[in-house]
From TrEMBL:
The chain crosses the membrane at residues 38-63, 99-117, 151-176, 188-205, 225-249, 261-281, 288-309, 329-351, 363-384, 404-428. The keyword Membrane applies. Residues 490-544 are annotated as: Disordered. It comes from the Bacteria. Residues 518-531 have a biased composition (Basic and acidic residues). Keywords: Membrane, Transmembrane, Transmembrane helix. This is Uncharacterized protein. The keyword tRNA-binding does not apply. InterPro entries: DUF6350.
Length: 544
C-alpha cells in the first residue's frame, strides 16, 4: 500500500515538472493536507476490501452453494459486510440485531490506516514544517506555543484522514445492504471516523518525533494519567490472556469435541480457526471482566463469574468449550480478584514518578482518577467485546459495561491512590534530602583533599593504625595476658572496703604486726617471672 501511495505522490510532481512555466519546487507541487488525506483514505479502503474479498472468495469456493450469496456480487457484498464489521458497525437482521463482532478483525483496518497516516504526514512534509525539538535554551513560551501548534497539526491530520474515510464507508454501507442484513449507516459513519481519526493522529504524531516526544505533546498531568491508564489496562489484558490460555489447556478435550462435531473439513477448518483467532481479543476482555468480578454472560440468565457459574446451551463455537462447568467456583479462583489491585498499585507508582505532587493530599487523588479513567476504558472495551446475536436468549452476550467500569474504577482506583501517595511521599523526602547532601558534598571532598595533602607532607600518617583500647578490645587481646579468675575468689567490694579502712587508721596507732595476706580474688596463673608481670584488674572500673 505504501508503494501505491508513493506513486500517487510522485506522479503529479513529475507531470508538473514537464510543463513549461511550472516550478517543480516542493512548496509549489506539494498537495494540501486534506487532499493527501483523501488519497490515503481511498487507497486504504481499496486495499482492505481487496484483502477481504480474496478471503471471502476462498470461503465461497469451499462453502456450500448459496451460503455467501449468488455469484460474485454476493461475494463482494459479503466482503463489504466484513469490512463494516471490522470497524464494529452492527447489522439489523429479521430476528433482531447482530452486535457481537470480532475485535481481532479491527487490526486490519487499524494497521492500514496507521500506514496511510504516516504517508499522509510525509506527503505534507509535516516533520519539516513543524520539527519536534527546538534549539537549546529556547524560551518556555516558545516551547509552549510549539506544542500547541503540534497538537493542532495532529488534530488536523486526523480529521483530514477520517472525514473522507467515513464518507466512503457510508457508500460501502449502502452497497452492502441486502434482504437479510442491513448495516446501520450511523454506526458505520461513527466507527470509521473514530478509528481513522485515532490512527491518523497517532501516525502524524509519530512522524513529528519519537514516542517520547509524542507523549510530551500532552501536559504533564494528562501524560501521567494516560501512562497510568495504559499500564493498568495492559496488566488487566495480559492477565485476561493468561486466564484464557489456562482455561483452553484445562478444557482442551471439550474444545476438540466441539471441533469434531462441526466437521468443517480442511478449508473450513482453517477458516474456523481464523474466526476463533479473531474472537480471541473478545475472549481476553471477557476474561479480565471475570477477573474484575462482574464476569460475563453467554445468553440471557447466565453468568460466568468468580462467585459462581450458571450456563445454559451455548453456541457451537469450539472456543466456548473452554468455559467452566456450571456450579460453584473453586476457592483458589477467588485469588484472581487481586489482579486489579496489583494493576492499580503499578499504575499509581507510574503516575507519581511522572508527575509528583508538591502536596501530600493531591497524589492519592490523582491515583484514584487513574483508576476512574481505567474503569472508563474497561467499560468501553466490555461494550465493544459483547453484543447480541439476533433476539431471544442470545440477545445478551458478553460483560455488562457499567458493572465492569464501576468494579475496575474502584479496585484500580483505591490501589492506585494508596501506591501513588506512598510513592509521592518517598519522592518528596528524597528531594528534600538532596539539597543537604549536595551542600555537604563539597565539604567532604575538601576534607578528603586536605587529609591526602597532609599525609604527603608528613603531617598525618598515610596509614593510621587504630588506637589501643582496654584489655577487652579484640585488637589488644592477642598481645596482652588475660588474668584468670579462680574459683576461690573473694568479693572485690569487701576486699576494697577492708583496704580503705586499713589505710584510714590513725598514724599514732600501733601498726598491725601481722603481714597483709595477698589477694586471692585475682590471680595470674601465667606469671612465671616471680611476680614481675603487670596485669590489669578487670573489676577496677567499679572502684573509686
Amino acid at each position: 500500500m505504501t508503494a501505491i501511495l508513493d506513486q500517487l505522490r510522485a506522479a503529479p510532481r513529475s507531470v508538473l515538472g514537464k510543463l513549461p512555466g511550472v516550478s517543480s519546487d516542493d512548496d509549489d507541487s506539494r498537495r494540501p493536507l486534506p487532499v493527501s488525506g483523501m488519497l490515503a483514505a481511498a487507497v486504504t479502503l481499496g486495499v482492505g476490501l481487496a484483502a477481504l474479498t480474496t478471503l471471502t472468495l476462498v470461503g465461497w469456493i469451499a462453502a456450500p452453494r448459496g451460503t455467501l450469496g449468488a455469484g460474485l456480487p454476493g461475494v463482494f457484498r459479503t466482503a463489504a459486510q466484513l469490512w463494516l464489521a471490522a470497524h464494529h458497525a452492527g447489522f439489523a437482521i429479521p430476528s433482531g440485531r447482530v452486535g457481537l463482532l470480532p475485535l481481532g478483525l479491527t487490526i486490519l483496518p487499524a494497521v492500514l490506516l496507521y500506514r496511510a497516516g504516516r504517508w499522509m504526514a510525509r506527503d505534507a512534509d509535516l516533520r519539516l514544517r513543524l520539527p519536534a525539538r527546538l534549539p537549546k535554551n529556547s524560551p518556555k513560551e516558545q516551547a509552549g506555543a510549539r506544542r500547541k501548534a503540534q497538537l493542532v497539526v495532529v488534530v488536523q491530520a486526523g480529521v483530514s484522514l477520517a472525514a473522507p474515510y467515513a464518507l466512503l464507508a457510508g457508500l460501502i454501507a449502502l452497497v452492502a445492504s441486502n434482504e437479510i442484513t442491513q448495516p446501520f449507516i450511523g454506526e458505520a459513519l461513527l466507527s470509521h471516523f473514530v478509528l481513522a481519526f485515532l490512527a491518523g493522529s497517532l501516525a502524524t504524531a509519530r512522524m513529528i518525533g519519537p514516542w517520547r516526544v509524542m507523549l510530551r505533546l500532552l501536559p504533564e498531568r494528562v501524560r501521567a494519567l494516560t501512562v497510568g491508564t495504559a499500564v493498568a489496562t495492559a496488566v488487566l489484558l495480559v492477565a485476561g490472556l493468561a486466564l484464557v490460555l489456562i482455561a483452553f489447556v484445562l478444557n482442551f478435550g471439550q474444545v476438540k469435541e466441539l471441533s469434531d462435531v462441526l466437521s468443517p473439513g480442511f478449508v473450513g477448518g482453517v477458516l474456523l480457526a481464523l474466526l476463533q483467532l479473531l474472537y480471541l481479543l473478545n475472549a481476553v476482555i471477557w476474561a479480565f471482566s471475570y477477573i474484575a468480578g462482574p464476569g460475563f454472560a453467554i445468553g440471557a440468565d447466565t453468568l460466568v463469574a468468580p462467585t459462581g457459574v450458571q450456563l445454559g446451551t451455548v453456541p457451537s463455537l469450539p472456543l466456548l468449550g473452554a468455559l467452566p462447568e456450571s456450579g460453584p467456583v473453586p476457592a483458589l479462583m477467588m485469588a484472581v480478584i487481586a489482579v486489579p489491585f496489583a494493576a492499580g498499585a503499578v499504575a499509581g507508582v507510574m503516575v507519581a514518578r511522572i508527575s509528583p505532587s508538591p502536596s501530600y493530599e493531591a497524589a492519592p487523588l490523582w491515583g484514584f482518577l487513574t483508576g476512574v479513567s481505567t474503569g472508563l476504558v474497561a467499560g468501553a472495551l466490555a461494550a465493544l467485546s459483547g453484543g447480541p446475536i439476533g433476539g431471544g436468549r442470545l440477545a445478551a452476550i458478553g460483560p455488562s459495561p457499567w458493572e465492569v467500569a464501576l468494579s475496575v474504577a474502584l479496585e484500580v482506583g483505591v490501589a492506585a491512590g494508596i501506591s501513588a501517595g506512598v510513592a509521592n511521599l518517598l519522592l518528596l523526602n528524597k528531594r528534600a534530602r538532596a539539597p543537604l547532601d549536595k551542600a555537604a558534598a563539597p565539604v567532604r571532598k575538601a576534607g578528603a583533599a586536605i587529609a591526602k595533602a597532609a599525609s604527603k607532607v608528613g603531617l598525618a600518617e598515610s596509614d593510621p593504625r587504630p588506637l589501643p583500647g582496654h584489655w577487652m578490645d579484640a585488637t589488644e587481646a592477642d598481645t596482652q595476658e588475660i588474668p584468670v579468675i579462680r574459683d576461690d575468689w573473694q568479693d572485690e567490694h569487701a576486699s576494697a572496703e577492708a583496704e580503705t579502712l586499713a589505710q584510714a587508721r590513725p598514724r599514732l596507732a600501733e601498726p598491725d604486726p601481722s603481714p597483709r595476706p595477698p589477694r586471692k580474688d585475682i590471680v595470674d596463673e601465667s606469671d612465671d617471672r616471680g611476680g614481675h608481670v603487670i596485669y590489669v584488674d578487670p573489676y577496677a572500673w567499679d572502684r573509686d
